[in-house]
UniProtKB/TrEMBL annotation:
Pfam family of the protein (one): WLM
A single GO molecular function term of this UniProt record: proteasome binding
PANTHER family per UniProt: DNA-DEPENDENT METALLOPROTEASE WSS1 HOMOLOG 2 (PTHR47795:SF1), UBIQUITIN AND WLM DOMAIN-CONTAINING METALLOPROTEASE SPCC1442.07C (PTHR47795)
Annotated TM spans: none
Every Ubiquitin-like domain range: 10-80
Native source species: Guyanagaster necrorhizus
Basic and acidic residues bias (residue ranges): 288-299
Source organism superkingdom: Eukaryota
Ranges for region Disordered: 280-317
Protein's UniProt name: WLM-domain-containing protein
Coiled coil feature spans: none
InterPro entries for this protein: Ubiquitin-like_dom (IPR000626), Ubiquitin-like_domsf (IPR029071), WLM_dom (IPR013536)
Positions of the WLM domain: 121-306
Length: 317
């Protein structure tokens, strides 16, 4: 008979909440997962258990003992996963997405119209923008998520680059942290959908607006270029510069979204180039070109690493 001292007490943290689980050394991984299912409503098949940065479920069938896996009294485990309630919501959302995708495919077969520079907004220009905003209804505060998506959609600087580059996005929606923990954004089928990480990892609020908007500019670039090559980097940099230029001109009262004539040519001044870098990086204060260039490259690399659109990490809808 095992003594009390032979018990192994582990702490499993799920979305910021610790769950204390007592196990015997001969308890199996499956026993641990069953206890976690009762505590979190996440089924074993959807649980991802990270111990010392490694997935302890990988290449295991659930019959290995806790002791043989190296877990000791006081071990801490991080758990990722989707609850049964969230899974039902995701499935309902996916069904709705399939219906939306079918509608968008039917629209794509219709003739497209090109925006002409007339000095006023015309009906063709309405084709460029976000056709639907879709927060995830199974997550908390979908109303707040919808307001953030609406703010992005109505952002005058974003509307400006959408018109300027004739970008059309079928659905602007959110990317739940538990679905793809490493991603901040995803562009599906060159603008059919753009998914953005709106929420914090702990679901206790929303990420900073300027950070989300920067990711949106990155994903809009994928409407044109799939890979993170030089063509992509050039266009992505240009979009961020145009956002900064538009906002400066708007503050100075020299730019109007309805005045499309000014969209035909973009030649940023050195001062605007500097402001664009500061705007993209969220910086402030005196501009040091070398320092800002290093920060810019570091930030863009971080965005590429957390983007699921290009490369082997590319994900589907």
């Amino acid at each position: 008979m095992a003594s009390a001292f032979s018990d192994i007490a582990v702490t499993v943290v799920f979305r910021g909440t610790p769950h204390h689980v007592n196990l015997l050394p001969e308890s199996t991984l499956g026993d641990l997962q069953n206890q976690l299912e009762k505590a979190t409503s996440v089924s074993p098949s959807l649980q991802k258990l990270l111990y010392k940065g490694k997935n302890i479920k990988q290449n295991r069938d659930g019959q290995e003992t806790i002791a043989s896996m190296g877990l000791r009294n006081g071990s801490k485990i991080q758990m990722l996963g989707t609850t049964s309630e969230e899974l039902d919501g995701i499935q309902a959302t996916e069904s709705e997405q399939k219906r939306i995708n079918q509608i968008l495919q039917e629209r794509a077969l219709k003739p497209a119209y090109k925006v002409r520079s007339t000095g006023t907004m015309n009906s063709a220009s309405l084709n460029y923008g976000f056709h639907q905003l879709l927060p995830l209804p199974h997550l908390r505060n979908p109303t707040s998520a919808h307001k953030l998506l609406r703010r992005l959609s109505d952002d005058p600087a974003i509307q400006h680059i959408m018109q300027q580059h004739q970008f059309s996005v079928g659905v602007l929606t959110e990317l739940a942290p538990h679905e793809h923990p490493g991603l901040l954004g995803l562009n599906v089928n060159a603008g059919q959908q753009i998914k953005l990480r709106l929420r914090t990892d702990r679901y206790d609020g929303f990420r900073a607006y300027n950070e989300v908007r920067r990711v949106l500019c990155h994903e809009l670039t994928h409407n044109v270029w799939g890979d993170h090559n030089n063509d992509f980097k050039e266009l992505n940099s240009k979009l961020n510069r145009e956002v900064a230029e538009f906002e400066r001109a708007r503050r100075d009262g020299t730019h109007s979204l309805s005045g499309l004539d000014s969209y035909d040519v973009y030649e940023p001044s050195p001062e605007l180039e500097a402001e664009a870098h500061i705007h993209v990086l969220g910086g402030s204060g005196p501009f040091n070109r070398d320092e800002e260039r290093r920060r810019h490259l570091s930030t863009e690399q971080e965005l590429e690493d957390s983007c699921g659109t290009a490369g082997p990490s590319s994900l589907g809808p």
